[in-house]
Amino acid sequence: xxxxxGPPLLELRARATPQAPALRDEEAxxxxxxxxxxxxxxxxxxxxxxxxxxxxxxxxxxxxSDLARWLHAADRVGVTLAPLHLRxxxxxxxxxxxxxxxxxxxxxxxxAEQAASLGEELGIGCLEASAAAPAPSRWPARGRAPxxxxxxxxxxxxxxxxxxxxxxLLAGAVASALHLGVVPxxxxxxxxxxxxxxxxxxxxxxxxxxIPVLTRSRFDPxxxxxxxxxxxxxxxxxxxxxxxxxLELRPHRAPDRLRAVLIGGGPCPEPLLRRGVELxxxxxxxxxxxxxxxxxxxxxxxxxxxxxGGRLRPLLGTEVRIVGPAGExxxxxxxxxxxxxxxxxxxxxHGLPEETARALRGGWLHTRDVGILDxxxxxxxxxxxxxxxxxxxxxxAPAEIEAVLAEHPAVREVAVVGHPDPHFGxxxxxxxxxxxxxxxxxxxxxxxxxxxxxHKVPVAFHRVEALPRNALGxxxxxxLRSAGEPRAPSSGGGSGRDASPSAP
Length: 504
Fold this sequence. Notes:
The chain has 14 helices and 25 strands. The chain is α/β, with parallel strands linked by helices. Among the domains are: 27-145, Rossmann fold (3-Layer(aba) Sandwich); 388-481, GMP Synthetase, Chain A, domain 3 (2-Layer Sandwich), CATH 3.30.300. It has a nine-stranded mixed β-sheet, sandwiched between helices. A four-stranded parallel β-sheet has the order 4-3-5-6, sandwiched between helices. Helix 5 links the parallel strand 5 and strand 6. The longest helix is centred in the first third of the chain and has 17 residues, at 32-48.
């Protein structure tokens, strides 16, 4: 990963600290020397199967050791690896495989039959995740192909494949280290899906820093707590629902060895962040994007001032600006589109030159996220441009309403979306996950009216058992917008009615 002509990053790390722990999943652990040998044999299997530098290889696998092995194998051969979403239906996988023109599909034992069926349908070869072959006497040139093709989360439409080069992933890993530091004895707990960029970036950081990554195929708050209390996990990457489940388990302070708890996947409710800070957790809310190789801006874990979801600092080498509808740069304190520039940006979307040109015009990544920069250059993310509700000619940010409702003691989670209105264009509607009995609509309206302008007060409050989220915990607002006219909870309090779309 250091450069197209030099050795892969894992080979350099294995030479430097061969016996240092590299990875531990639920079943086994590997040193860097062992991981390097495994990656070499996988790379040889790619060559034996006909893969060549510049081609694309897909992978369907759950275990962290499999993802790490084939990531570094792809780096050695010079192919582009595309980790596929494990929750997609076979038809959705077939669409992504057709669009990517893949040479091979690598699959673990759970998905071997599905991969074989897809391969036969699409004329793509298949390899088992355990495949191995003897290393060649001379490795072929790796070329300059992107290392990863990572599909965006697709929260507002179809997923696109972002092409991430070795140079961008390495730049992100270096900048993250400069932001958070690297300490002997660190261990990064990775319970995010490794087919998302956040998990993949941790694998790259592990090889660069020489620290182990503790991968988990599912989130278990008790397992996380044991890893933290035992000192194995000093750096965590979580999303808001994971943080909430963990805080429910541990009302006591974390050990001093815990250095940073990165919270990503979208804005985190302010009351939840405040609970964590009050327990002494070194929370580091983070804004990241697939198109920017994961991490863009992170709040310092030592920061204790509210707002707890604000003051995110761009990583070294990354520029962040806020622009208005005409592309004008906006002053501090004014909400607008977040744009990003720096060495971590993608090369483009695979097979989508027009979308690439739109997203990267002027050398800036046009994120379509809404945010504010404060007077000190700290970022606060408010949501998506697509989420802004235009009610009676006024722009309403759902995050502002959500922050107010999240302060109500009966509300555990909340999402606000715009529903069509014949007179106002749109009106805000709130979907609430309650902690217990939920007050009636008039009580909730009065609570909002005391804190918000009239046009921002939701016209309806709808109790749901869970908010629809993707595998990374990002809210799927489109499912709420398409749910139809909601029914408010009864005015006399109680549990209300649940007509929500099914949560994933």
